[in-house]
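Example record

One chain of 308 residues, shown exactly as stored in the release files.
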Amino acid sequence: MNEMLPPGTFSDMTSLEKMRQGPPPGTDPVSEETLTRGGAYTLEERVTPGPQGAPDISLLICRPTAPTGPVPALYHTHGGGMIIGDNRVGLPELLELGEDLGAAVVSVEYRLAPETPHPGPVEDCYAGLVWTARHAEELGIDPERIIVAGGSAGGGLAAAVALMARDCSGPALLGQMLMCPMLDDRNDTPSAHQMAGLGVWDRAANQAGWTALLGDARGTDDVSPHAAPARATDLSGLPPAFIDVGSAETFRDEDVAYASRIWQAGGSAELHVWPGGFHGFDIAAPQAAISQDARTARALWLRRILSP
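Predicted structure tokens for this chain:
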């Protein structure tokens, strides 16, 4: 769910193509056997219409092999700092959550920055969501139980998709699960400064990722909330949110602020700040007690929100 990168990796873009040649640093290639989870899921790659005037997009559709009726769906937007990754990044962890709930998982392949700056990536993600909702019956999905989910850059995109669904009268989402989401292009919170030069996604890497997406607009007043959800002035009318983040990472303060502003707007948000957690701690150390607690908290929230 998270890009595992050393500090300053994206302080320049010269190594980008090399990094795209394999899985994100710190992660293993994701096999089809891993994604089927021992036969619990069937996989289908579907090419669907992209945004108007843009290329088609690819959705990896993972469906339970023995459903007893329409199933809930987790609509997944992958991490990768907006500039690397594909629709398999972070998917094994989400399928682990989905299997326990009998849920389908649909993962979108969006175009990456800097070749495709904003609004291309988020419009791809939104187009995939709209297609999924419209074809829910065909896919065996319950259209009233779709949750957007993502980690890091994917968490930011999931939050932006939820805003777009509200603003464009799009699919009615049941929830949004935002794991250490990348929300604020201004990159100027106390935690962003605190983590400069430290951790697996530091302030320099964050600045480079946002600059790839937004160019010279990064940090100015010209940034849309559909690019950086922290820019939204109105967080009312959104689906219930789950937000979690480590206390020792760049995104801590922007994520806490986003949850607080949802509450202030009258919305529902469950916030977890994991003490001592760094960016991607649950991926780097999955057997650690804090990682197990984080995954349990996500599973419990999903179970609650999906209960009748």
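Notes: The CA atoms of residues 190 and 278 lie 15 Å apart.
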